[in-house]
Amino acid sequence: MASMISTDPSFSATARLLPFTRFSNGVVSLRRFVGPLHVGLLNPTFPRTLSLNSIRSSRFITAAMATEQSAKVIDGKSVAKQIREEISAEVLKMKDAIGVVPGLAVILVGDRKDSATYVRNKKKACESVGINSFEVHLPEDASEQEVLKSISDFNDDPSVHGILVQLPLPSHMDEQNILNAVTIEKDVDGFHPLNIGRLAMRGREPLFVPCTPKGCIELLHRYGVDIKGKRAVVIGRSNIVGMPAALLLQREDATVSIVHSRTKNPEEITRQADIIISAVGQPNMVRGSWIKPGAVVIDVGINPVEDASSPRGYRLVGDVCYEEACKIAAAVTPVPGGVGPMTIAMLLSNTLSSAKRTHNIK
Amino acid sequence: MASMISTDPSFSATARLLPFTRFSNGVVSLRRFVGPLHVGLLNPTFPRTLSLNSIRSSRFITAAMATEQSAKVIDGKSVAKQIREEISAEVLKMKDAIGVVPGLAVILVGDRKDSATYVRNKKKACESVGINSFEVHLPEDASEQEVLKSISDFNDDPSVHGILVQLPLPSHMDEQNILNAVTIEKDVDGFHPLNIGRLAMRGREPLFVPCTPKGCIELLHRYGVDIKGKRAVVIGRSNIVGMPAALLLQREDATVSIVHSRTKNPEEITRQADIIISAVGQPNMVRGSWIKPGAVVIDVGINPVEDASSPRGYRLVGDVCYEEACKIAAAVTPVPGGVGPMTIAMLLSNTLSSAKRTHNIK
């Protein structure tokens, strides 16, 4: 059965290098996770900017805490809900102030059911926060020229602040060429090499940060996890999650190591980490023995495994063996309900940021 | 006394974030290094592409070798000389085939002596391999507009394949703005965020790789050091050396960790590495105890330390305590004569590549 990572499926051509095929985006099929060790749910109504004092308070996780044998659950679903409420308030404020509503455009080509579902969910998410959504649906046999024309129209449309091309595109199209046509000012996916370059460089700021890794870091922030000076291990080096997640952690002064398929001793290296972000798409690959006591674990993987007892015949598990992680980590994201819901929240956040930047609003 | 790293001094604005000030570019003041443990000099006439068999031969270094208590010296001066000979041959071949000679343009503003020396050395290096060099020298009080005009002229000039703006620029100029004016097709320094982004992304290729980190990797290649699957630690995360060096190592399937000023246990992490690249500008910071027996050490630092016995009153040392490294590493670059000479060789290489790309020559 195919595995994936909980990133938005409108990912770039580079995602094809990953050993995963798309299965579910973790947003569509979210359900409340009820695991045997699902304890200590935090109230995610944390301030966006944390003071040192609040970080020190007991509501927050420190990588060295883990005094008990059960990890705190990092509740991505609740955090994402809160972020959407914040976005909603900002959208309203912007509308009141200057009469502008942020807009996200999605281009869908062909009739793939999964793609249609993702697009529908993005539309719904936009509606829920008051962001305008635009959609162009072209037939499977549309020409590349038609897709480029739609992109060009959205590039020129001042009511559109973000553009997504739903992937995969039909095989007769040059995906790279099409994605490159999206103006960098509206590339809310953040996959443009210029954005990645700026993300990598000190003293530069990317226009957009890719949604899934941004969601991972946002979870760490909202749960008060100290990143500066901490050892961080990112498992997986994909263009859409692993690599930008490593760059983000480095921007926050973590000491980062990237573990990948060619790494000879992934367990040993991972066990040194205060913060683990796993994005490989291998069910239960990261066992308890990989985790340092008190580490914080962000699990980006969403892997379907056969489960006859489930009505769907499968259930979703992460890259991390959740039960084992719960016994050793200070905090861990569940799958589903961890990183998944954050991805679409960050997409909305990027769209709002784009609108604010366009209209010079802080 | 100021410290630096052995990178070409025409570096971008981002370099200003580094804790180093410029002192010497390691190319200007090269001299034969004669250290007490300067043993086992290799003949650097290695094939550019190494077969597995040749890698296995005793002429090459493996990270696990170090059976003796004295490291091989990675002779950057000899390798750079060889590369210049190769470039020279290619330049001649290109001229014979299509009548085109690669060209490098340097823009110098003001009368800083060190800048004038660097420019003169680049010019000499170009001459030595048959690359045309162009120079514009503007007065200190030139306007930004005049600099931009010179860049624009070189951008449009088909006989120019690489453009360098010698830094630092006078303080009344917007360095970022000026550097951004160099067309990416001629950005032989490779510092453009688009190049860095492509370097970071799997499946993408940068137009140019920054000269100093490219030189480090070239040394590893030429000395047959296996990178794939190896633990690599890069010390320093500058835009011009550390960060791109880490990206390059990762592209070659090393497992990379980046150690920096916020890292709590740099010694412990560095000691895990099979390959160390140090680019921090701290004299003798990396002691023998930081180095795993048999590791390969690339020292990018060029730090002047007071030395009353020297006619100049100082001598140059690396980030790595050379004498201690020699006792534990499998191979180590000396300072000077290690990475330094490689930087300008890679600048020539980038200029040649640019000309070849322009004229579609493999």
UniProtKB/TrEMBL annotation, chains A, B:
One of its GO terms (cellular component) is cytosol. The keyword tRNA-binding does not apply. Pathway: One-carbon metabolism; tetrahydrofolate interconversion. It catalyses: (6R)-5,10-methenyltetrahydrofolate + H2O = (6R)-10-formyltetrahydrofolate + H(+); (6R)-5,10-methylene-5,6,7,8-tetrahydrofolate + NADP(+) = (6R)-5,10-methenyltetrahydrofolate + NADPH. Keywords: Hydrolase, Multifunctional enzyme, NADP, One-carbon metabolism, Oxidoreductase, Photorespiration. Gene3D superfamilies: Leucine Dehydrogenase, chain A, domain 1, NAD(P)-binding Rossmann-like Domain. It comes from the Eukaryota. Residues 74-189 form the Tetrahydrofolate dehydrogenase/cyclohydrolase catalytic domain. One of its GO terms (molecular function) is methenyltetrahydrofolate cyclohydrolase activity. InterPro entries: Aminoacid_DH-like_N_sf (IPR046346), NAD(P)-bd_dom_sf (IPR036291), THF_DH/CycHdrlase (IPR000672), THF_DH/CycHdrlase_cat_dom (IPR020630), THF_DH/CycHdrlase_CS (IPR020867), THF_DH/CycHdrlase_NAD-bd_dom (IPR020631). GO terms for biological process: photorespiration; tetrahydrofolate interconversion. SUPFAM superfamilies: Aminoacid dehydrogenase-like, N-terminal domain, NAD(P)-binding Rossmann-fold domains. Residues 210-358 form the Tetrahydrofolate dehydrogenase/cyclohydrolase NAD(P)-binding domain. CDD domains: NAD_bind_m-THF_DH_Cyclohyd. Catalyzes the oxidation of 5,10-methylenetetrahydrofolate to 5,10-methenyltetrahydrofolate and then the hydrolysis of 5,10-methenyltetrahydrofolate to 10-formyltetrahydrofolate. Belongs to the tetrahydrofolate dehydrogenase/cyclohydrolase family. Homodimer. This is Amino acid dehydrogenase family protein.
